[in-house]
């Protein structure tokens, strides 16, 4: 990220903070009170010293009076600091919560094309780890940057009131500290950026491997995965070490410069006291101011390196938040009429990448209540056609129409609620069996839910679970078998009973006996409903009204089962090959 991008990131952070202006103002006010009282204490301390170094006895009444003032100032300082820290905490955690909410909301709005191109682990790292790092470093920045800047300005004013000449010594030497901090900070940002990106890469690998550990072990890939992890981990260690090294030398370097400032103040102040230009108490106060004046530079230089890390993490989070969302619904968008059934694809062209053509000039007319089976070799475009029907992807040209209306002119909610989908890749959310079955129809009664489960032949295995329908299952179904997960997905659709159905290898993980039963239930469910059946096993599509045989994104054969066999073409060869395998 160059300087311009870094400035843009800072502007975005400030825009996130702007709604919390009242808390920011309170924090600044308390910082002013904190610094003012902190700077006033050395004045009182200097006066105490002057009342104790005179030629006569110690002036106890004056000393005790000043001590009471010091105690009061210290107590007020502690209170102001507590309020300031509370305000800063509230600002930071509200901002981080809002940023995380925006990021999660954007993930739900992102097109599938973006999700397919970015690993889930990297996005999890951005939403969780990067936001955490951003909030932690932003909190440190708020707490120390505010007080640091105000302390510098305040001490400068106090020192000018005491002695202009010595103040000039401090001011002239201070820029050296800033130059050192700037030199180091410019190098830390790049390292923190690489560290954040590599951490996301590592999270993605861990997420992928944990989710697919059975496959890794089945193919004996443990060593190769370990080597990949070690390589990423070594890079992360290298970048982290460099980032920490550069950030850690900032404070010692600026402290060295500030020590030179303190020595200069001590020497010039001592000569001034000897000449009678200032009292010993004023010298004591001035040394305290010099120390307080240089201390914020140490803190700010440390904060700057942390802010570099925060900006690097914020940049990744904002990149996710600002990623192009899916094309919004048309304005105004129409709602799909109830019980739609007629569907057509007119001169549809689509490809996932421009350089690799997939579907070209695709035409299809589907009548209400028809059962359309789609078969063909892997990669021919069967699932792609389903993606276009559901508008997970938009066509490059041409149109997909339902009841004569282009689906791009319809609301996505009305379009997708008109389809019921059962896919080969099941998705089971973390929660109860009841939650998963009723996902598309949360208001379903107990009887409706159980009836749907019985039709899907899932009721028997559900009743054997410890708490039946209230059994809590983990992410992706926990200990349920793949077949049981698929039965739950089938029950989910049978409960909703939408006007159109999409069955994409819906019984691929189910035993033959249960599949025969479910196919009968499907036949009943598909009565009067427009249905699309994607299958490799041709035995499951023999009863379809129309069978589309696809190859390389085009329909090469079309007809019912008997007519396609009579053509003795591609479908007949596929069927004979499967029949031969069965034999």
Structure write-up:
65% of the residues lie in helices and 10% in strands. It has 583 residues and is an alpha/beta fold. It has a domain at 3-321: ABC transporter type 1, transmembrane domain (ABC transporter transmembrane region fold), CATH 1.20.1560. Helix 1 (3-17) crosses helix 10 (280-321), helix 2 (21-52) runs antiparallel to helix 3 (60-109) and helix 2 (21-52) packs parallel to helix 5 (120-162). The relative contact order is 0.08.
Note poorly predicted spans. none
* Shape descriptor: elongated
Q: Treating each run of at least 4 consecutive H or I residues as one helix, how many helices? A: 19
Q: Helical content, roughly?
A: 55-70%
CATH topology call of the domain at 3-321: ABC transporter transmembrane region fold
Topology:
Layout: H1 3-17, H2 21-52, H3 60-109, H4 112-117, H5 120-162, H6 164-211, H7 213-218, H8 222-248, H9 250-275, H10 280-321, E1 343-350, E2 359-366, E3 371-375, H11 382-389, E4 397-402, E5 405-406, H12 412-417, E6 419-422, E7 431-432, H13 433-437, H14 446-455, H15 459-463, E8 472-473, H16 482-496, E9 500-504, H17 512-525, E10 530-534, E11 546-551, E12 554-559, H18 561-567, H19 570-582
Helix pairs in contact: 1-10, 2-3, 2-5, 2-10, 3-5, 3-10, 5-6, 5-10, 6-8, 6-9, 6-10, 9-10, 14-16
């Amino acid at each position: 990220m160059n300087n311009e991008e870094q400035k843009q990131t800072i502007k975005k952070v400030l825009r996130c903070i702007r709604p919390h202006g009242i808390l920011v103002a309170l924090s600044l006010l308390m910082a002013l009170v904190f610094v003012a009282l902190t700077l006033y204490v050395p004045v009182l301390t200097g006066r105490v010293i002057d009342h104790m170094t005179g030629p006569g006895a110690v002036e106890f009444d004056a000393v005790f009076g000043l001590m009471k003032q010091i105690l009061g100032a210290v107590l007020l300082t502690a209170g102001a600091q507590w309020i300031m820290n509370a305000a800063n905490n509230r600002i930071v955690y509200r901002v981080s919560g809002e940023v995380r909410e925006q990021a999660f909301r954007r993930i739900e709005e992102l097109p599938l094309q973006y999700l397919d191109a970015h690993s889930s682990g990297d996005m999890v790292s951005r939403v969780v780890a990067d936001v955490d790092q951003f909030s932690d470093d932003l909190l440190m920045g708020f707490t120390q940057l505010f007080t640091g800047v105000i302390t510098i300005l305040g001490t400068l004013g106090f020192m000018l009131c005491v002695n202009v000449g010595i103040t000039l010594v401090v001011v002239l030497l201070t820029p050296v500290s800033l130059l050192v901090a700037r030199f180091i900070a410019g190098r830390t940002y790049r390292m923190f950026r690489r560290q954040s990106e590599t951490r996301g890469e590592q999270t993605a690998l861990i997420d992928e491997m944990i989710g697919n550990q059975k496959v890794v072990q089945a193919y004996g890939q443990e060593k190769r995965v370990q080597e990949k992890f070690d390589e990423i981990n070594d890079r992360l260690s290298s970048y982290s070490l460099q980032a920490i090294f550069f950030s850690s030398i900032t404070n010692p370097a600026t402290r060295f410069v500030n020590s030179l400032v303190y020595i200069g103040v001590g020497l010039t102040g001592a000569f001034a006291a000897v000449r009678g230009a200032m009292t010993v108490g004023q010298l004591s106060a001035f040394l305290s101011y010099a120390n307080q004046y240089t201390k914020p530079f140490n803190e700010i230089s440390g904060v700057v390196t942390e802010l570099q890390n925060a900006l690097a993490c914020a940049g990744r989070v904002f990149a996710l938040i600002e990623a192009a969302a899916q094309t919004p619904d048309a304005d105004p968008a129409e709602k799909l009429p109830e019980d739609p059934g007629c569907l057509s694809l007119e001169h549809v062209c689509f490809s996932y990448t421009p350089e690799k053509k997939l579907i070209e000039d695709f035409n299809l007319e589907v009548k209400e209540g028809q059962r359309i089976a789609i078969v063909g070799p892997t990669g021919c475009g069967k699932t792609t056609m389903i993606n276009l029907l559901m508008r997970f992807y938009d066509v490059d040209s041409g149109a997909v129409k339902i009841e004569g209306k282009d689906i791009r002119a319809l609301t996505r909610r009305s379009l997708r609620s008109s389809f019921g989908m059962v896919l080969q890749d099941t998705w089971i959310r973390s929660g109860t069996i009841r939650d998963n079955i009723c996902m598309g129809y949360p208001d379903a009664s107990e009887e409706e839910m159980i009836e749907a489960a019985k039709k899907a032949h899932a009721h028997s295995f559900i009743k054997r679970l410890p708490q039946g329908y209230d059994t809590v299952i983990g992410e992706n179904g926990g200990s349920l078998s793949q077949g049981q997960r698929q039965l739950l997905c089938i029950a989910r659709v049978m409960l909703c009973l939408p006007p159109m159905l999409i069955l994409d290898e819906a019984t691929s993980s189910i035993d033959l006996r249960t599949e025969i039963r479910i196919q009968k239930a499907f036949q009943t469910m598909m009565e009067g409903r427009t249905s699309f059946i994607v299958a490799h096993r041709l035995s499951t599509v023999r009863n379809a009204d129309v069978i589309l045989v696809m190859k390389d994104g085009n329909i090469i054969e079309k007809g019912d089962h008997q007519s396609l066999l009579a053509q003795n073409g591609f479908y007949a060869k596929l069927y004979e090959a499967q029949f031969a395998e069965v034999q």
